[in-house]
Every structure is written in C-alpha cells, then in structure tokens.
C-alpha cells in the first residue's frame, strides 16, 4: 500500500551559516495493506518526522512516497487534499490542536465536512455510528472533550481518524500519555479496527513493548537513519544492529530462560545538528571499528526482508 524510498527531511539550522539538520536521512520502507509497521527509536531520531512527512503534513526535502499507486510527493495541493481522506493521523493528544469549545460531535463531523462526505443528517448518523465503533456511547456527541478521561479522548481521536474510512493511519505516540492498563485497551481497539476495516498502520513509538505488541514489521531509527528493519519476530528475537541490541537489552525478557545481557550504552544521543562522522552511532557503539568513524555504513540485506545498516554486516 505504501512505499517510501530515499525519504529526507532537512530543517534549516537556527544558527546562521550552520549546516541544516538532517532529521530524516535517506529512509526507505514498504508497508503491505492490512499490516502494521512500527517505527521505534529514542526521541529526536526522526520517527515522528518520518510519519508526518509520509502524509505530507510536513514537506519532505527529497524522496518518493508511493501510496495507493500515486506518488504523493508529486501531488499538488488540491489532489493531495482529496487524498487525505485515505490517510489519517492519530496524535498523542488528539485535542491539543482543536478548539476546546467544540463538542465531540462537531470534532467528529469536521473531517466529513472537509471532504464533502454525506449530507447533514447522514453525517450525524455517521458520528453516532463511529462513536459506537470505538466503544463510546453515541450520546457523547453533545459533550465536550474536557468531560472525558485520557482513554476516552483517545477513542475520540481514533474515531476522528477513521470516520473518513482511510486506508492508512499514522499513529504517533498514540498511547504514550496513557496509563498502562488503558494503553492495552486502546491498542486492542486499534487491532480490532485493523481487522474489521482492513487498516494499515504506521505506528510510531519510543516504547519497545508497545511496538512489539502491535507490529508486523519494525524499523529502528537512530539520528535520522533507519539502522535496522525486519519482521517484528526476527528483530526482537535476533537483533543485529548494535544499537537495536542495546535498546532491546533494556526491556524485560519474554521468557525467563532467555539469556540476554544488559548492554549499557555509553554517553547520550548526540546533537542531531552535529551528528558524529561516519556511522552516527560510533561514539556509543561497543563494536566500533576504525572504518566506522569515517565512513557511513551501507544498508545490507541480511535475509529476505531484513536490513541492517552497519559495517559489521558488509
Ligand atoms: Fe557500530 Fe560500526 Fe556498526 Fe556503527 S557501523 S553500529 S559503529 S559496528
Ligand atoms: Mg516524536
């Protein structure tokens, strides 16, 4: 359904004369219809920027984004607006950008009005239906966001995203602000909706447990680059990139007899405005070699559908 290749997003630096920040640096991945791709990495790694660039909510600097057979980067604003019906976003706080005086009904009706879908009476009916689909009472349409708990608000955020019947939903830290028990309910809702509506997800999160729970494939990002990608199972059971290994060593094991050494990374994430030379990970990498300090590693296919960007796998 979605094929992203060579995606780049640069932001100009605040300091005059300084090099631009490469927030997303040559990222490629595909997502098949009905599947979930998880993007994981620490804050500042470019995963949110990737998610937003894919929907062209921010303009990519370079790259190709093929979605439903069209190259999104080539679309002018009118056809892009029409295409938005098919690709929606769920945010961490669904109400952050909305007028707090709007009722839930108005919040949910808005995408239908924007895309000129249905007449007024049918829109009201669609709003009632979608509330029911996400497990909320249709009578909530007259209430305001502040009357709801975090979990209920996120149900509304999901309802708003799927009311136009999109094919692709980008979820950016969609459960990160919620208590763990509520997180599980929302993740289960998203998975039920995926089955019922054949949705495709790009799921962005810093939380490795969440990503493991929802993803078919995952991509691990570090300082704007995709360092490892593969099926969820293969990446979690046999991580290859030293950064992925370190990240995964920090989460609880699935089986008590699984042996996994805790790898403590030295130092903190470097400033994305001045990333280390060669492999961006080299100052923190336990396996760093001389070549890593000067040459960016190539991306190598280590098995079918599995890619690692590291000199160890050349
Ligand atoms: Fe470590 Fe070198 Fe691989 Fe980078 S390329 S992750 S520094 S071994
Ligand atoms: Mg983010």
UniProtKB/TrEMBL annotation:
<dbReference type="Pfam" id="PF00005">
    <property type="entry name" value="ABC_tran"/>
</dbReference>
<dbReference type="InterPro" id="IPR003593">
    <property type="entry name" value="AAA+_ATPase"/>
</dbReference>
<dbReference type="InterPro" id="IPR050319">
    <property type="entry name" value="ABC_transp_ATP-bind"/>
</dbReference>
<feature type="domain" description="ABC transporter">
    <location>
        <begin position="2"/>
        <end position="248"/>
    </location>
</feature>
<dbReference type="GO" id="GO:0015833">
    <property type="term" value="P:peptide transport"/>
</dbReference>
<keyword id="KW-1003">Cell membrane</keyword>
<dbReference type="GO" id="GO:0055085">
    <property type="term" value="P:transmembrane transport"/>
</dbReference>
<dbReference type="InterPro" id="IPR013563">
    <property type="entry name" value="Oligopep_ABC_C"/>
</dbReference>
<dbReference type="GO" id="GO:0005524">
    <property type="term" value="F:ATP binding"/>
</dbReference>
<dbReference type="InterPro" id="IPR003439">
    <property type="entry name" value="ABC_transporter-like_ATP-bd"/>
</dbReference>
<keyword id="KW-0813">Transport</keyword>
<protein>
    <submittedName>
        <fullName>Oligopeptide transport ATP-binding protein OppF</fullName>
    </submittedName>
</protein>
<keyword id="KW-0067">ATP-binding</keyword>
<keyword id="KW-0472">Membrane</keyword>
<comment type="similarity">
    <text>Belongs to the ABC transporter superfamily.</text>
</comment>
<dbReference type="GO" id="GO:0016887">
    <property type="term" value="F:ATP hydrolysis activity"/>
</dbReference>
<dbReference type="InterPro" id="IPR027417">
    <property type="entry name" value="P-loop_NTPase"/>
</dbReference>
<dbReference type="InterPro" id="IPR017871">
    <property type="entry name" value="ABC_transporter-like_CS"/>
</dbReference>
<keyword id="KW-0547">Nucleotide-binding</keyword>
<dbReference type="Pfam" id="PF08352">
    <property type="entry name" value="oligo_HPY"/>
</dbReference>
